[in-house]
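Supplementary Methods. Inverse-folding protocol.

Structures were first reduced to a discrete structure-token string of length 353. This string, shown here, constituted the complete conditioning input.
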């Protein structure tokens, strides 16, 4: 019974209590009037009854408002920066005003804390991104400055040395241009929540990309296995850039004689795009990081070839914007396989994440 009463809203409980106490006081007064009929006794009983009503009501109201005081203390602590604090709901039933208030505030605090943590993580990522980008740009800039100073000091003895310096400067400029383009692409992807998707013929894009790659490296055995007419919901330019990055990796990180397979097919209600090579593969501890921005499994060699470690991050961002999934499987000596799974048009793209 007491537990049932505790579940009543505060206003009902206090109203019932005060009404019951007043009724008792009135009953006591009536009893004194019937039993003694003495005015002094009646007044004394009535005063005692009213005092009792006042004392008991004050005590009960104080007790009932204690959770609110605790809530106010907790709110002060939260305002002072202790974001982990929560109002204790256990002491009060969730049907009461205080219980509902505590639950609503706790839910709101959880949401605020999640949003704050997400913002902190995103700011940290952005800081890291800017630091890495600056670091990457500093290397070619230093190199350009070095060659320019050599030239100015007259330290390049003949035309051959000047030509070589200009070639090196041009190659550094190309590297910086590629890096800035990749950075802009990633920054654009970071801004977009989802790509502007429309039905796109993935088979055609894959065939075109293989043809382009074969034209650049005619000596590499290309083995396309492309099912005709696989249409996905996508952004054609982004999907082309995804394939260019994967095929660029085969070109950059495997010897030119290593065969490359490109496969496109449907599997259930999804499309599979696979790029696989028989190159040297990636060491086990590096595989988990290859989608990180600026990560290179073989720093020296990749950088020397102009790689900035952003290609696979772009590939991952494109597949995410398409509501797809990506996986990379590789081991030293066993080659590398990248699978991109994209939803087919009849399925809403976002559901597939
Ligand atoms: N097919 C592959 N074979 C061997 N290693 C690879 C292959 N693809 C990627 N890697 C490794 O993964 C790293 C990350 O690849 P990613 O494409 O992100 O950067 P990158 O190719 O070095 O530079 P970028 O693509 O920005 O020009 C590479 O540096 C390379 O070490
Ligand atoms: Mg790459």
């Amino acid at each position: 019974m007491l537990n049932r009463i505790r579940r009543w809203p505060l206003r009902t409980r206090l109203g019932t209590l005060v009404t019951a106490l007043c009724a008792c006081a009135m009953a006591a007064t009536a009893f004194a009037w019937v039993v003694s009929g003495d005015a002094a006794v009646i007044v004394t009983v009535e005063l005692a009854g009213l005092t009792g009503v006042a004392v008991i009501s004050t005590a009960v109201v104080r007790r009932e408002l204690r959770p609110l005081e605790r809530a106010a203390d907790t709110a002060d602590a939260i305002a002072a920066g202790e974001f982990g604090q929560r109002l204790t709901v256990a002491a009060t039933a969730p049907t009461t005003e205080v219980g509902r208030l505590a639950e609503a505030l706790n839910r709101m605090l959880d949401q605020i804390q999640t949003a704050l943590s997400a913002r902190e993580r995103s700011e940290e990522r952005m800081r890291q991104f800017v630091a890495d980008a600056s670091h990457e740009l500093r290397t070619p800039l230093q190199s350009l400055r070095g060659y320019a100073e050599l030239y100015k000091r007259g330290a390049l003895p003949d035309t051959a040395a000047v030509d070589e310096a200009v070639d090196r400067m041009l190659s550094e400029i190309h590297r910086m241009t590629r890096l800035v383009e990749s950075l802009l692409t990633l920054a654009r992807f970071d801004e977009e929540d989802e790509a502007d998707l429309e039905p796109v013929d993935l088979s055609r894009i894959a065939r075109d990309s293989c043809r382009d790659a074969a034209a650049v490296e005619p000596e590499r055995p290309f083995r396309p296995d492309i099912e005709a007419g696989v249409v996905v919901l996508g952004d054609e330019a982004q999907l082309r850039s995804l394939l260019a990055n994967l095929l660029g990796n085969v070109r950059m990180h495997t010897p030119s004689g290593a065969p490359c397979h490109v496969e496109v097919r449907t599997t259930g209600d999804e499309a599979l795009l696979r790029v696989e090579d028989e190159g040297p593969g990636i060491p086990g501890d590096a595989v988990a990081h290859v989608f990180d921005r600026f990560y290179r499994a073989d720093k020296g060699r990749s950088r020397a070839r102009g790689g900035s470690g952003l290609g696979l991050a772009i590939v991952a961002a494109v597949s995410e914007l398409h509501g797809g999934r990506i996986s990379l499987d590789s081991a030293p000596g066993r080659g590398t396989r990248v699978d991109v799974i994209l939803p087919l048009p009849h399925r809403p793209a976002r559901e597939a994440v």
